[in-house]
Amino acid sequence: MQLPKDVCMGALRVTLTGNSEVWIENYRGILEYTGERILLQARTCQVCLEGSRLSIDYYTNEDMKISGNIVSLTYI
Amino acid sequence: MTEWLKRLRGYVKIIVWGFAPQRFINLCSNKGILLWNIEKQDDVYIMCVSLESFYRLRSIARKTKVRVVISERYGLPFFLPHLQRRKAFLAGLVLTVMFWIVSSMFVWDIQISGNCVITDDMIFQFLEQEGIQMGMRKSNLDIGELEKQIRRQFPQVTWTSGRLMGTRLLLELKENDAPIPEDTQGADAIIGRDLVAEYDGVITDMIVRSGIPQVTIGSQVAKGDLLVDGKVPIYAEDGTIREYRMVTADADIRMEHSGHFRIFLPADYILKKYTGREKTGYFMRLGDREWKQARKVSFLQYDSILNTHSMKILKMFGINGTFGKITYREYQKTEYLRDDSEAKEILQEKISDFLESLGEKGVQIISKDVKIETKCNGWVAHGELVVQEKVGTQVDTTQKED
């Protein structure tokens, strides 16, 4: 039986729509948040989103939505 | 939808700043507190949180050493206390909503469409007999039964459709367009009807459907002559007339006859010459009552031009209400004299209108001889026409034996 990796390993799931919206699931929390940079802690890595006018549309324990002008997404 | 629910339950926009605002956000999500519209502005974080979750933020704020301040409040829980202070407004609001709900339970307007022969009054009278009127409860209305009753009451109605649109009852009817056949076996059949000529002339065409023709194509007839007899003889075996059967004579008979016409045009005519002076006023009409802005009109002769607008809201309650502007426009009556060419032009137009109207009536013009003459006080157009037209007027059959 093949389960999706985000379910069995708790891997980060990132859904990008153009460069203006991004949905992120399976994260642990926010490490840093400014209008130009959002750093998130996942189970095995960190994700850094850079851009301008970044804002969090909603933030729950399950998922979050970030909107703004996204320039880069980096796994650290 | 979510926004509507959020507003119903109430939410606040908060400003967060201090030692670890990121940790504050993380802890909120861990505790199942939903945060939305999180924005970083300078050194502070602005975010929205529901009213019930806001009371759970105190411990998190203390733990993360941040300060939380409400910047804006949204939703019904914040709006209601304001209303409590305005008791009259609240009572008015409740009463309005109640009035609205109660009013919507009744029929406030009845509209009928599609009727042509049956008048609105006849239908309204019937509806009143059936207990259907403005102000009745919608629940007492059985539209299916009403449609059946209308069809039963008015046999010429072939189709009915009733529906409720809000508080308005719409009734659509369809009447039978086909002509009702003449009852030849009715009272007329006992008396019988003849066709007689209306003019002196010559028969040019003839199709008889019912009755005995008394003339043929080419016959010269005088006014009042019998064209088709409504008394049909029934012969016995020996060739003698046994009895007469009375019928309504029916035929298409065309006759060629001559006629005379005369059109008079006076030399002078009066025309209104507007002086350019105007006065305006306003008025309002409710049912039979009218209110007019009191204005003294000093003009000797004037036209009143009404520009009216109907109040559609009142129409829904069956009240005929209009309002508008009255313009009084002064004029002077000026007498003019026509010249010869102008008069001839007008007369030509009148003659062609007259001939056109004859054509519309099915009269075919064979020849015409028109003359325009000048009289002392005007012009006269007169002429002789030879026309072909349908003739035959129904009269009661003469009872005398032939």
Approximate shape of chain B: elongated
CATH class type of the largest domain in chain B: Alpha Beta
In whole angstroms, the N-to-C terminal distance of chain A is 31 Å
CATH architecture tag of the largest domain in chain B: 2-Layer Sandwich
Task: Please give the radius of gyration of chain B in angstroms.
Answer: 42 Å
CATH-derived architecture of chain A: Sandwich
In this structure, how is the largest beta sheet of chain B organized? 5 strands, antiparallel
Going by helix content, strand content and strand pairing, the class of chain B is alpha+beta
- Coarse shape of chain A: globular
Cα separation of the termini of chain B: 93 Å
The total of helices of chain B stands at: 11
The overall average pLDDT of chain B, rounded, is 86
Mean pLDDT of chain A: 88
CATH topology of the largest domain in chain B: Alpha-Beta Plaits
Q: Would you report the number of β strands of chain A? A: 6
Helix- and strand-based class of chain A? mainly beta
Which homologous superfamily in CATH is the superfamily of the largest domain in chain B?
A: ACT domain
Give the strand order, joined by hyphens, for the main sheet of chain A.
Answer: 1-2-6-5-4-3
The tally of beta strands of chain B, per DSSP, is: 22
Helix-strand layout with pairing:
The complex is a heterodimer of chains A (76) and B (402).
Chain A (H helix, E strand, L loop, with lengths): L4 H4 L4 E5 L3 E5 L1 E7 L3 E6 L3 E14 L3 E13 L1
Chain B lengths: L1 H8 L1 E8 L2 H10 L4 E7 L2 E7 H4 L2 H8 L1 E9 L1 H10 L1 H17 L5 E5 L6 H10 L13 H11 L3 E9 L2 E8 L11 H5 L1 E4 L4 E10 L1 E2 L6 E2 L4 E4 L1 E5 L5 E6 L3 E17 L1 E19 L2 E4 L9 E9 L1 H5 L4 E17 L2 H21 L3 E12 L2 E14 L1 E4 L6
Parallel strand pairs in B: 5-7
Antiparallel strand pairs in B: 1-3, 1-4, 2-3, 6-7, 8-12, 8-22, 9-11, 9-15, 10-12, 13-14, 15-21, 16-17, 16-19, 18-19, 20-21
Helix pairs in contact in B: 2-4
